[in-house]
Amino acid sequence: MGRQAVTIRDVAREAKVSVATVSRALNGHSNVAEPVRRQVLEVAQRLRYSPHGAARSLSSRSTQTIGVVLPDLHGEFFSELIRGIDAAARARGRHLLLSSYHGDRDEQGAALRAMRGRVDGLLVMSPYADQPGFLAENLPQPLPAVLVNTHPAEAAWPAFEIDNHAGARAMVAHLLQQGHRRIAFIGGPERNYDARERLRGFRDAIGAQADAHGVEYTGDFDEASGHRAGGAIVQEAQRPDAVFAANDMMALGCLYAFAQAGVRVPEDIALAGFDDIPLARFVHPSLTTMRVSIAELGGRAMTRLLAQIEADAASGEGEGDEPAGPDRHVLAPELVVRASTAAAATEMHGQARRSPRTKRRKE
From its phi and psi, is residue 258 left (phi > 0), alpha (psi between -120 and 50) or beta? Predict the structure, then answer.
């Protein structure tokens, strides 16, 4: 005979709590003390209790699943973002349904619409949100949604983003303070909101310095485009004093192109990136960059979404009040100075501000 299935009553008996408490803990409700929630989850995992998904969905109209729609799933940025999202989801007993659309507007619209009935809420990163009507037409209603690094045409959804403009200005300020005046910028995809804001910050910072000159190269936020830009830079008759890549992956590709050409960093050309992916500190020379708490960004967005889902569930079908707090949350990146912009540099940090001036401290 097969092993008898573990029931919710078995979990309640083992955890020494009521069946209702087990149900609330497993469903992620906020009215369960955290020690009790952890105890219930531990017992459920030890007993290998698995709720009947279809029955639970019918009774509670909850899937216990959160949809996440991103431009891509490849690369350290998205890996860190998903790590933060997943950690926050698992803390409330939720699962993820991931989808990417690889830069295609119609595919993203289809991915968003396909989430209807499958998830309790959505986290969305979209370069098309600035097009009026795109989100309203494609986001399933009244499904709760939170935007990540997205600039919507309508301010109808909570949004979490990085202050890319301030971060780019802080990096250019650092390079200017190092004495560099001819600074090249390797930009990201034109449709990408982060890339546009970082380019805007670069141009504003260069324009504010009378004797500074900026040179721009196109990139695609990957190592290959950084390598191509680096190859073009070393061929220039008048090389820049420094290169600022709009993300670390392009900076690392550029660094490899410089090494192939025998160009020394930072002695011949200083080099900086943006994001502070884990690899940035382990290359030689270690990379100066703007640190973005990518996992924190994902975790905070997920926490905000779960708060909305729980508020809606408590008051019924999306009619509850939204959790208190602003709907737009901006995370400031942090300047991390390493050897790629200063030959004898030790790591130093400073909070990016809207002014290009920034303080630094040793790590």
Answer: alpha
